Amino acid sequence: MKDERVLAQCNLFGILGAIPMLLELDPAARRLVKKKKISIGFAVKDGPRATLAFENGNAELTEGVEKCSIKLPFASCQKFNGMIDGTVTPIPTVGIWHAGFLLGPFKKLTDLLTKYLRPSPEDLADPVFFERSTTLMLHVIAGAIAEIGNHDKIGRFSASNIVNGTVKIGIGEELAVGIRVKEHQLTALHYAPEESLSEMIFDSFETARDLFDGKINAIAAVGLGNVRIAGMISQVDNINRILDRVALYLQ
């Protein structure tokens, strides 16, 4: 079963945490906030708290809501998750005069993100869209792995068996993210780590996509040579156990 707190962590740091990368990948997304300097604080009771700040077409998500232009409070993790799935409309307690940004550029931005993360077959037929979508999924999954490893009961058990160090997860030679492990706490790195203790590298965007979509099994892909694993194998094995939980929360 899903834990609403874990889902809220994944939604905030996985889904919304992909918005900075969306702005890097898609010029249309960047234009929506090109001249904006504004920040949205998401304050979830008994759940995560983080601020998404926009400036000059870029964005950054940081923990805490102490400094934000707009503050969106949520009475529970379930309410926050409802905002993500479109069933709850939050009311700002700070910065209500910025409602135009929420209903305009920000909504268009999240709609575009949804299009990339839940694409139609027609959209995926476009190779540029396919690559952007798969790249965003890689970043979302990295964020979700960290949150599940830190907050989900089963995920925490896997994390308890991971030694300190960074796991590199990449597609080909040019695209990668990392999962840093320190004292069994996981942190998503939305860039290619300079050093890693272990790595899991997909040979192509197609292989990565098939694995993300559940069309192929990771172990089978390794056997076929489509996924390369190196370094501390037990580290990768436990990250893969957490990865198996991602589909439960982000299906």
Q: Describe the sheet with the most strands.
A: 5 strands, mixed
Assembly of the depicted chains = single chain
Q: What would the principal axes of the Cα set say about the shape?
A: globular
- CATH T-level fold name of the largest domain: Nonspecific Lipid-transfer Protein, Chain A
Domain count: the total is 2
Keywords:
alpha+beta, Nonspecific Lipid-transfer Protein, Chain A, five-stranded mixed β-sheet, 11 helices, 9 strands
Describe this structure in words.
This protein is of the alpha+beta class and 251 residues long. It folds into 2 domains: 4-118, SCP2 sterol-binding domain (Nonspecific Lipid-transfer Protein, Chain A, 2-Layer Sandwich); 122-249, 2-Layer Sandwich (Nonspecific Lipid-transfer Protein, Chain A), CATH 3.30.1050.10. It is built from 11 helices and 9 strands. It has a 5-stranded mixed sheet. Strand 1 (37-44) and strand 2 form a beta hairpin. Helix 7 (127-151) crosses helix 8. The longest helix has 25 residues, at 127-151. The chain is globular and about 55 Å long. The mean pLDDT is 94.
Question: What's this model, at a glance?
Answer:
The chain is of the alpha+beta class and 251 residues long. The protein has helices spanning 4-15, 19-25, 27-32, 77-84, 99-117, 121-124, 127-151, 153-159, 205-212, 218-223, 233-249; strands at 37-44, 49-55, 58-63, 70-74, 165-171, 175-182, 185-189, 198-202, 227-231. The chain has 2 domains: 4-118, Nonspecific Lipid-transfer Protein, Chain A, CATH 3.30.1050; 122-249, Nonspecific Lipid-transfer Protein, Chain A (2-Layer Sandwich), CATH 3.30.1050.10.
